[in-house]
Structure formats: structure tokens, C-alpha cells
Amino acid sequence: MPLLPKSAGAPRAAGLHRRSLAWHLLARLLPAVLLLAMMDTVATYVITRKLSSQSYDRALVDTARALARQVTMTPQGPQLDITWNSTRFLDVDPDERLYFKVLANGVVLGGRPELASPPDSAALRQEEEIAVNEPVTSAVEMINNARPTVYDTTIDGLPVRAATLRFQLDGVPIDVVMAETLNTRSRFIEEVLSVLVAGQLLLVALLGFVIVTGVRSGLDSVSRLSDEIETRSIDDLQPIAVDDVPTEITPLIAKTNSLLARLDEAVASQRRFIGHAAHQLRTPLAGLKLESELMLSRTLPDDIRQRAERIKGVADRMIRVGEQLLVLARIDANVRPQDSFNRIDLVELAQECGARWIPAARQAQVELALAAPDEPIWIDGDAVLLDQLLGNLIDNAIRYRQGPGNIVLRVQDAPPSLIVEDDGPGIGASERDRVFDPFYRGQGSVAGGSGLGLAIVKEIAQSHGAHWDLRSRPEFEGTRVSLVFPGPRIGTHLTRMARNGAAV
What is the secondary structure of 258-296 as a DSSP string? Predict the structure, then answer.
């Protein structure tokens, strides 16, 4: 049950409870998913960077070995082969700039002298360590078996990656240094990173979409259940069906059904009490009425006769109220209509009920007429309750008019309809919805009414799945109450939703 806010934090708490379940799950899962996506991106980035760096370093070392093979021994000492075309090595990638330096015993044989050699104190990364188990017999084997040193340095203000090979040629130490800029490496890492980030963002968005749509799809049965509950009448306390409902909702439905069962028992107890009380009052009221009639049958003084007539009038009204309470106690929207309905002819019902009300209508100077076809119009219903319904409509039409007038009972087919029309003062527009409430009496009501007549009409019509409509001035000259019933074999199998939907 909602509580009035006691502090500033109450509205915020209420807002949290109104949050969508799908967005609630998304808000809980999204931070964890983003964290995992970031961790995966970082791990993939680090591994990719390491593998790509190893691949580029291996290519750089291969270029350095190719350059080392261009060093030959001459009578003047080690020399760089003059037939060597540096363009083959330095123009491999137009996006990169390559630098080299060849040293023989510390003397520069070619290349850029300012290209730094590996620092002695640096933590050098070694690749392609090849153990030499046999004596070296040629310069090519020396170059192939030389252990490269790969490191980072700068030249011309540009960061470069360099690889150094150190070997001996006829006893002379040779150092070959090959370096390249980092453009291709950086571009490759940026492309990999952009693809990783885009893929992770797409994955997170897809996961969010799946969560939201999945939760909403899973709650479709809850939405249908909500629609069914919305269409129920206030008197329908039947248990809620748990078919095709998520198991997480089952405990809530079970508790709700338990509450409905207790409420149903309380309402049934109240109905039984009203029925028993009304039944117990019938005998003393009938005795009181009989005594008053016996008194009125004798010669009495005027003042005593007036009192006896008032006693008889009160007894008649109390008996009427008791009968109406018994009818209300008998109507149970949860049991009818499928249990006790029979095939009924609306034309015959209107004839018999109208005939019983002719004396009362004549006494009130009202002409009661019937407009009905000669053929029967069949519906499925409870004859006793429908007789009470029509009797209450006729009684209201007679009781709440002043002076002579006319009342017409109409029975129509396709669809089966029962209509009561009068040319009385009518019902105000502001009261047309309230006149069907129990114990409500409109403005200008005459004495003696109980306010239960139209309430009983509403309950009986609703239990039969009938649509009702009330028209009055200025739309109709007087008051017109129309009831449209479902046809035969339909009323006996009305679902709860169809019954409740009839109250339109």
C-alpha cells in the first residue's frame, strides 16, 4: 500500500520501484559488461601489439642480415660491396624511412654515423637465438648465427626501431645496424584498436538490446495477465491463472490468490449474513403487516387509522428491502452464468412480469404496454433473477414519476434486447452513472425507496453478460433503459473476461 512521503528520500525510492525491470537489469549488467569489454580490449591490444612488434622486428632483423651479407673482405680490409643497391632495402615501404650503419672494428663503412648503437645498460630483447654446435666455415654462417639486438632509439628527432648484428669477418669485428621509423607499426596498432573498440561497443549495444527485448518478451505473459485483471469486475475474486507465467512471478501470484481467497470468503460471509438477516426479518415483518391490515379492516378512530396505515407502509417498505437484499445475496458473479442458466423466452418473461405489475400501474394511473414480436426470443439465463430485474425497472418507472403516464416494455431480436421506456421526469446527466450504485437515491426521489433497485439491475445484467444503456432527457423524452443479452448457448459459456466486458 503506498505511503505518504516522510522524508526527502521517499520520492527517490518510489521512483526506483517504478523503474522498468528491463532497464533495471541493464543498469546492473552494463557496468560489469563494460568492465569485461575494457579488460578484453586491453588484453587483446597488448597481445596484438606484442605479436605485431615481434613480426616487424623479425622483418627488420632479416633486412639487417641481408645488409650484412653485402660486407666483403678485400686486401684493404672489410668493405661494403660497391655493387650493392641500397634502394632495394631503403625503399621497401613508401610510408617508412630506413636507416643503416656498417662498422668494421669501429670504423664506419657506410650509412648514417649518428645512428646509435645499442646501449650497454639497456634491457635488450634477444630474438632468434641459434645455438652453433658445429665450427663456422663461412661468413654466411656467421651472419646467420649472429644474435640480433633489437632496441628503440631516435634519429633526426624521429623515434625508430633498430636491430644490430655483431659478427667477425676474418677476425675483424663487424657491426651492422638497421633502423626503421614506426609509422606502419603505429598505424597497424591504431587500426586494430579501433576495430576492437568498435566491436566491443557493438557487442555491448547488442547485449543491451537482447536484454531489453528478452525481458519484455519474457514479460508478455505478465502483460496479458495484467490485461485480464484490468477487465475484472470488483466482484470477481476468482484465483488468477498461473499458466504461461514466469516462475519468478509465481510466488507473487500465489500470495495474490491467497489474498483473493480470503477476500472471497469475507464477501461470501457478508452475503450469507445479509441473506440470513433479511430472511429472519421476513417473518416478523409479515406478522406486523398482517396485524396492521387486521386493524385497518375494523372501524378505528381517524388518528389510530393513520398510525396503522403508516405502520403498514413501513412494513411494506421493509419487506421490499428484505426481498431486494435476498436477491443481492443470491447473485454471485463468480458462479454465474455457466452453472444454473436455462433457456428463457424474453417475450414470455416480459408478458408474465408485466401482467403482475398492471394493478400497481393502474393504481398509479400509469398505462403499461408491451411491444414484442409474436415469435419467441431465446436467451440463456436465470428466470428468477431476470424477473427481479424487469420488476425493479417497472417499479422504478412507476415510483419515480408524478401523475399519469405511460410505460412501454419492448422486446427485440437480433440481438436479443429488453427495453423499458417511460415518459417521466428523467434522470439528470450527472446522476446517470451513480444511480446504479447501492443505496444511492437521486435528487427528487420520493419517499419509500431503498436505493437498491437499479443496483440489483446492474448486478443481474452483469452476471448474464448483458450490455446496458441508460438514456434520458434531452436524448429521450423520459427515461429509457436498454439491456442487450448474448444469444442462446453463448450466455452459458461466457468467460470471466467477456462477462466483465459487458459492463460498458
Answer: HHHHHHHHHHHHHHHHHHHHHHHHHHHHHHHHHHHHHHH
Question: Residue 108 sits in which domain range?
Answer: 47-117+125-188
* CA angle 140–146–152, rounded 5-degree value: 130
pLDDT of residue 84 exceeding 70, the answer is no
Query: CATH number, domain at 290?
Result: 1.10.287
172/55 same-domain check? yes
Amino acid 450: pLDDT: 62
Is residue 23 in a domain?
A: no
Contact of 466 with 393, CB cutoff 8 Å: no
CA atoms 484, 486, 492, 494: torsion sign: negative
Identify whether the C-beta of residue 285 lies closer than 8 Å to the C-beta of residue 318.
yes
- 176 and 55 in a single domain? The answer is yes
Pair 307, 384 in one domain = no
Cα of 277 vs its chain's centroid, Å:
47
pLDDT on residue 177? 92
Per-residue HEC secondary structure of 298-330 comes to CCCCHHHHHHHHHHHHHHHHHHHHHHHHHHHHH
pLDDT reported for residue 455: 81
Cα(441)–Cα(113) distance, rounded to whole angstroms?
114
Half-sphere exposure of 247 (CA within 13 A, CB side): 0
Give CA separation, 479 vs 129, 131, 420, 474, in Å.
Answer: 109, 114, 8, 10
Q: What is the mean pLDDT of residues 348-354?
A: 93
| List of residues 6+ apart from 361 with CB closer than 8 A | 367, 368, 394, 398, 407
Answer whether 189's CB lies under 8 Å from 48's CB: yes
User: What SS3 state is found at 92?
Assistant: coil
Q: Is 439 left (phi over 0), alpha (psi -120 to 50) or beta?
A: left
pLDDT value at 119 more than 50 = yes
Tell me how far CA of residue 276 lies from CA of 13, 24, 265, 449, in angstroms.
48, 53, 16, 22
**What is the DSSP-derived secondary structure letter of residue 82?**
T
Chain Cα centroid distance, residue 68: 73
